[in-house]
Amino acid sequence: MQVADALRDDIRKMKPGEKLPSQRELMDRFGYASQTIQNGLAALRTEGLIVSAGNLGNFVSDGSTPGSNVRDDIKEIRSQLKTLTERLEALESRSAPGGA
Q1: Does the N terminus or the C terminus of the chain have fewer Cβ atoms within 10 A?
Q2: CB–CB of 81/89 below 8 Å?
Q3: What DSSP string describes the chain?
Q4: Residue 50's beta-bridge partner residues?
């Protein structure tokens, strides 16, 4: 959510059609893993703030693109649940006796 929040601020200053930084650039900027960046971008796509053009990157939406459909929403929720589950498992393993 921090990635999405920061990018929302950036998007407010950008014009429709402007390209967002690459995923690699965002990873360097925020210091987060690829999946975390992808989750932030997915949230912005769901909100209709950006559109993805595949290998060309992500661009500021002009507002004419409709929001995602239900399948995309479910896919995003599943992705976020998976990430949260992995983080929870890592935390639990650290707190277990003999954990790191």
Answers
A1: C
A2: no
A3: -HHHHHHHHHHHTSPTTPBPPPHHHHHHHH---HHHHHHHHHHHHHTTSEEE-GGG-EEE--S-SPPP-HHHHHHHHHHHHHHHHHHHHHHHHHHSTT--
A4: 60
Are the CB atoms for 3 and 37 separated by under 8 Å? yes
For the stretch 27-30, contacts whose Cβ atoms lie closer than 8 Å and that sit 24 or more positions apart, written own/partner, are 30/2, 30/3, 30/6
And the tokens for 92?
A: 């639990």
pTM to 2 decimal places: 0.62
Token pair for residue 4?
């999405």
- What's the rounded mean pLDDT across residues 34-47? 93
7 CB-contact burial (10 Å; exposed 0-12 / middle 13-18 / buried 19+)? buried
How many other C-beta atoms lie within 10 A of the C-beta of residue 21?
15
pLDDT value for 100: 58
